[in-house]
Specification:
- The structure is a single chain.
- This protein has 264 residues and is of the alpha/beta class.
- It folds into two domains: 81 residues, 2-Layer Sandwich (Nucleotidyltransferase, domain 5), CATH 3.30.420.40; 177 residues, ATPase, nucleotide binding domain (Nucleotidyltransferase, domain 5), CATH 3.30.420.40.
- Helix 2 links the parallel strand 5 and strand 6.
- The longest helix has 28 residues.
Length: 264
């Protein structure tokens, strides 16, 4: 039975249709109930598939989330299943002291990661790096226990904070340099030294991200007593993967693997 799966962030929403074991291409729109409905309607018209259920996960504020749910239910005449963090589900146990504090999206991503591996891959623990506006890291051991994790802002949020707290650094000037193509190289070596404000900010933030990830990996390995598998997901996963010199698994839409588990 076809199901509409929706991931609602603070700024953007992604959605896909899951039917007969396959996902349709993932679409991305601004988090707005009317725009979301219009775009989903277009998706249905193009695919000629009518969903029999709608499942979503949201990190947007409660008022916006409820407005979107009401709008979807009114538009599609279906009940929307809103997934929230639980103490345990689908073989995974939340490691937070208060499980309700764990972000709903992080929970669903963990469920998707743990339940999408089998055989030999499930004999070792995993680290899940979700690279969005905030980079989150979660460690799940081989028995499904969420050991815990770490969080940090991505490079865009760090640049924004730097601009707000420093009169001499303006993102508008940095963006102008970026638009002109000056030193705009995603593969720029991290051992280089910046020779402009843009390079100093860019390379500094990249070093912060890489250092954060490396430290998380080292500490998790020490805690677990074994090297885990490394799974990267989220919109910034590919860019961050390019900064690393280790083998990692890229799963760009892992959150939908988690949402499909809730199809009854």
């Amino acid at each position: 039975m076809p199901h509409l799966l929706i991931d609602i962030g603070n700024s953007f929403a992604k959605y896909t249709m899951y039917d007969a074991g396959k996902f349709s291409s993932v679409k991305k729109v601004t988090t707005n109930s009317l725009e979301l409905n219009d775009n989903i309607a277009l998706l249905l018209k193009e695919s000629s598939v009518i969903p029999t259920g709608i499942i979503l996960v949201s990190v947007a504020n409660e008022k916006l989330t409820n407005n979107i749910i009401k709008s979807l239910e009114s538009y599609f005449k279906l009940s929307v299943k809103n997934i929230e963090t639980q103490a345990s589900a689908f073989g995974v146990t939340c490691g937070y002291r208060d499980y309700e504090q764990l972000g709903n999206d992080r929970w669903v991503v963990m469920l998707g990661a743990f339940n999408s591996v089998d055989g030999k891959a499930k004999t070792i623990p995993m680290m899940i790096f979700d690279c969005g506006s905030v980079i989150t890291v979660d460690v799940v051991n081989r028995s499904g226990m969420h050991v815990g994790g770490w969080m940090m802002p991505n490079t865009q949020l760090m640049a924004s904070a730097l601009e707000q707290k420093s009169e001499g650094i303006k993102l508008s000037l940095i963006k102008k340099e970026l638009k002109a193509g000056v030193n705009n190289n995603k593969q720029k070596a991290l051992d280089e030294i910046g020779r402009s404000t843009f390079e100093c900010v860019e390379l500094g933030h990249r070093l912060a991200v890489v250092g954060f990830i490396q430290q998380c990996m080292e500490r998790a390995k020490k805690k677990l007593g074994i090297e885990p598998s490394y799974i990267f997901t989220g919109g910034g996963a590919n860019e961050i993967k390019e900064m690393l010199d280790i083998d990692v698994e890229l799963r760009s839409n892992l959150i939908f693997d988690g949402l499909k588990l809730f199809i009854e």
